[in-house]
Amino acid sequence: MSGEIVNRVSKSALVTIDLEDYYPKGERVCFDIKDWLYEGLVLREKEFRAFVIAQDWSIYKNQFVALHCTTDAIIPGWAYMLVRLKLSGIAKQVVVGDLEALETSLYQPIINDLELSFYKDKPVIIKGCSNKPVPQNAYLFLIDRLQPIAKSIMYGEACSSVPLYKRT
């Protein structure tokens, strides 16, 4: 033994993919429809339409918007569509759901468009720790894309990864 410290991870064939690197830039905002409901529970069409007309939609310029209702009210589909029409050309993207649904919606096309040929026949680690809100569904989308091409797939960090898949 020479006592020399060798970084085996840097010398291995392991490649890492970090979904945080693909995080779309832009402000995210939740738009809660409950504030436009009678007693927070009932959607009255005439009043709802008046709120939609009176709203200053410019405050959502270039933002990613999640439309949702935090009460147990039943919101008809047309109400979300009406709000979406007002945000057309203003917001970057609009979805019905919470911030997790919004992030999922943002990541799906990004992962679908990723060039993954670099990972062909290689052991891949999908980095797990993230400072940005990468949705769990994004990891599932990535697994679907990597499984047919990667030699193996692990999750975590090179020093402590969890094996998920190994081609036989």
Give an account of the 3D structure:
The protein has 168 residues and is of the alpha/beta class. It is 30% helix and 21% strand. It has helices spanning 8-11, 45-54, 77-87, 99-112, 136-146; strands at 15-17, 28-32, 64-68, 93-96, 123-127, 152-157, 160-166. The protein is elongated and about 80 Å long.
Give a count of the beta strands, DSSP E runs of length 2 or more: 7
SSE sequence, one letter per element: HEEHEHEHEHEE
The secondary-structure class comes to alpha/beta
Low-confidence stretches: none
As a percent range, the share of helical residues equals: 25-40%
The proportion of strand residues reads 15-25%
Q: How far apart are the termini? A: 35 Å
Shape: elongated
Q: How many helical elements?
A: 5
| Arrangement of strands in the largest sheet | 1-5-6-7
Average pLDDT metric: 92
Entry summary:
By secondary structure, this protein is α/β, with parallel strands linked by helices.
Give the topology.
Blueprint: H1 8-11, E1 15-17, E2 28-32, H2 45-54, E3 64-68, H3 77-87, E4 93-96, H4 99-112, E5 123-127, H5 136-146, E6 152-157, E7 160-166
Parallel strand pairs: 1-5, 2-3, 3-4, 5-6
Antiparallel strand pairs: 6-7
Characteristic key phrases:
2 domains, 21% strand, alpha/beta, 168 residues, 4-stranded mixed beta sheet
